[in-house]
């Protein structure tokens, strides 16, 4: 991202106390030196990049080297802007190597970053002359005119000619000196600020990434960050499932077995104690079933081990509504995408069993390119509303969390079709 600091304060009386005023002046004067040094080097690099392009066919990468040289030279100018104006301009990034000599040379030749930086030095050529004139007009001419009352009478005929004006009296000379002093105090600092601001704007536009590029890079960073969050949540979900399965569930199984042995050993003695043991055993078995359902809802181990086909087959087998299942997902997507598809199907089939009054359901999971498509149909009463259904809203949020889309087509009396498309590239 490009962040240009204000070169100098806005108020003229504050400019005189600011080091930016003098640093901006030095920077503007230095533009002429930059044109004669860095500008010539960039021109030579661009010419070499063009002329050496055919050499890429015989594996001589002069075009690529010249491309990188332009980026290196432009980094000096960004460093100069940072030192004199406090302006941070993010560096442009050259095209990555592809491994093909000819393709690398072609990318280097068509690289927009090189041509933007080359354009900067071309535009700096006329601007450097303008900045020299501005510096002279701001800092040299006013002091000379301020001293006019002291020397104008030494000219021929005791008069000085300033354009169409003739200075032939002390009064006129004093007026010119006062105007020059006001110009020096109020206008000269503003001239430097305006010139430096324009010079900084030019550097921002041509030496740094465009606003579109900055936004695209930011979007890419946010997408990557969001994907990391989604993946970390999925990892944590699997850890919880593993801890519940290997920890609490195993302890409850051991407790249920101990209670069962205690009940068998007690026999018909102490009916009241036997009743309590039976109740405790029943509660332990119920808790085991609930934990098993909970762990299955978090992340079933079969999904990790054998993929969507096996996991969804188990879900279809447990469904109270007959389900026809078709899964074709090759190559296998990531575990995060598989988990989202799994929960879309399980939630949809749960809704079918609870609300649809359907006689049959169909689940189709397919992968076409980089898109995983999940489709769940039923022949129930329809009328499903994603706005009112918290389960459907949760599925929508989960699918959109990875740039996916979920749609529900559910006319009253016409069954329901739930479709989710999730990128899995």
From TrEMBL:
Catalytic activity, reaction form? ATP + protein L-histidine = ADP + protein N-phospho-L-histidine
Q: Which GO terms describe its cellular component?
A: membrane
Q: Which domain of life is it from?
A: Bacteria
Q: Which residues form the Histidine kinase/HSP90-like ATPase domain?
A: 342-423
Note the InterPro entries from the entry: HATPase_C_sf, HATPase_dom, Put_sensor_dom, Sensor_HK_TwoCompSys, Sig_transdc_His_kin_sub3_dim/P
From the Swiss-Prot or TrEMBL record, give the protein name.
Answer: histidine kinase
Region Disordered: which residues?
Answer: 406-425
Could you state a single Gene Ontology molecular function term?
phosphorelay sensor kinase activity
Q: What class of enzyme is it?
A: transferase
- Species: Kribbella solani
- Signal transduction histidine kinase subgroup 3 dimerisation and phosphoacceptor domain sequence ranges: 236-303
Q: Which parts pass through the membrane?
A: 20-53, 120-141, 173-195
Putative sensor domain: which residues?
A: 39-207
UniProt EC number: 2.7.13.3
- Keyword Transferase carried by entry: yes
Query: Looking at the keywords, is Cytoplasm present?
Result: no
Report keywords, A-Z: ATP-binding, Kinase, Membrane, Nucleotide-binding, Phosphoprotein, Transferase, Transmembrane, Transmembrane helix, Two-component regulatory system
